[in-house]
User: Fold these one by one.
Assistant:
Number 1:
Amino acid sequence: DSFVVETDVHFPTDINLLCDAVRKVIETSAGLCEAEDLSDWRQSAYNVRCLKQAYRRVQTLKRSNAKDEDKRAVRAEEIKQAHRDYLELAESFLARARETRRRLHIGCALPLAAFSALDDYIAHSERQIDQIRRRVLCGERIPHAEKVFSIFEPHTEWISKGKAGVPVELGLRVAITEDQYGFILSQRVMQHETDDQVAVPLVEGLVSDFSPLASVSFDKGFHSPANQQRLAELVDFPVLPKKGKRSVAELEREHDPRFIARRHQHSAVESAINALEAHGLDRCPDHGIDGFRRYVALAVVGRNVHRLGAILLAQEAEAERRRGRKRAA
């Protein structure tokens, strides 16, 4: 099964992402100048305050609900002007940062590697300025594929799994497989992947490491006709319910007693997911995609150690009960 591990990010909007990016441009430029004893950004804290004031001005303006069309038009123009002022201020800071970069590279002979972070934040800023201008001033709808949901954790994805009360989650999907003894056999961080795209690779990995497999159970989200066919080649009895309308043959297969019994056992992996989330894998505090993968892997190791400890404790308790019965006899 799969679940979402959230990244440590705030809720994104294009204007707050621009504020984050330009703020880091200012702070990074100021840090580079301070290291080289330049005074270009001596008022960096004041610059950040000015940026935040412009951001809050845009943030607090709401579209008018007045019945008077003229009032709505005035408010709409006021909103556009606030965005123009915000973008103009952000672009002025970017122009200063580029000039600072040029001076530090040519005048102070700093290597290009020293500007990697600054260049990243400038690129993030330019993208957000372009998207805000297109959305607010030109009335364009920004395609989902062009959007970034965090400048600090750019691997973050906007995920809607249809959970009650949870319209959207910001993070990455993680798929896990669990055996009949409660141990997690594998995990996969699903970057730009959906459930139906990982079903076969997961099982192929299991077959490679633990062959032969008698059966494997998925939920409906992993279904596709190609997956059904390939899993039948890899596993003796795959349990993969079909989404949507079923044929007579598919209904017979899903009403097979073995199919039903294994579907009832599927809740075990959901219990493992709940345990992972309860012990810290609901949200990843580590930075970067490498940190995310490491955090997930360590959480899985911790879960398996916890499960092993529970089995050993149960064995010790059973041994103690047997010794008690022998003494009583």
Note: The chain has two domains: 12-146, 157-313.
Number 2:
Amino acid sequence: MTALPKTNSLTFRLIAGAAVWSVLGLLVGGFILSGVFRTAVQESFDSRLTFDLEGLVAAAQVETPDRVALAGRFADPRYERIFSGWYWQILPEGLPAALPQRSRSLWDFTLVPQNLTLDNTMFWGFADGPDNQRVRVLSRQISFPAPSPGDDPRIFQFVVGGDIGEIEANVAIFNRSLIWSFAALGLGLIAAILIQVRVGLVPLRRVSEALARIREGRARNSEGDFPAEIEPLVTELNSLIAHSAEVVGRARTHVANLAHFLKTPLTVIANEVANEKGPLADSVGRQVTVMRRQVDHYLARARAAGALDVLGSRTEVAPVLSDLARILPRMHPD
């Protein structure tokens, strides 16, 4: 099982940062696309109302002072189905007692436009429709010529409307598709980011493995082809390793030289003490023996270290410990 990256790791920071920006970008893009789609659907809906209103006006002919005849020239199945969400009505102006003409879909309901706004010669607004519908309405006053000289022109208010629930339904369908699409895209982006970061950080893992090989004695420096961004780091590490080896080597040389310098005076002292008798001579002799043993020990270590690389050398510990384990019980049976 792959361990999760630590929160203070470079992998976590790269993945988390890219993921957060990707999710934010998708959210902003989703809101923008949803808004653009809603605007497009709204404009298409309004264009349809405008087209229907123009068709309704074109089909109308004054029949009586309070009524117009469509003469079958305005036939749309949407306006025939009861409570279909598409309605029209025609109301004569100046005749409060006159009943409005309605589409079959409106049945006996009357639309009362509210919050009207003027756009050129038409009024846009909303109205409460049948079956708790919210209706987008388009209203326009049309003046027909007087049927005979001396009569006043006939003015009628033409209203067409459509249930905005259709807009909301289309937007909801689009939003669901958008959410699922962006969710899949977001998961794909995060997966791509994860792969990209993992692949991008491979050279750093190779540097770590190279250092582990040096520590274990399987290599003397970092070798291999590295990206241009990592190559200076590898070069500096190799230079540092070489410098450390040189410093440690010089230190061991100085230790060996010091031991050699001490060995001759100790030999002279030992020879002088050997010719003397007494407690002082015995004490000095014992200390000289201890010092010579220590000098010989460090000379041996210096010679052994000189035969090996400063870094990258390995010692098999298991065989030595095995020999000690066999010898010690014999030396100290108790």
Note: The chain has six helices and eight strands.
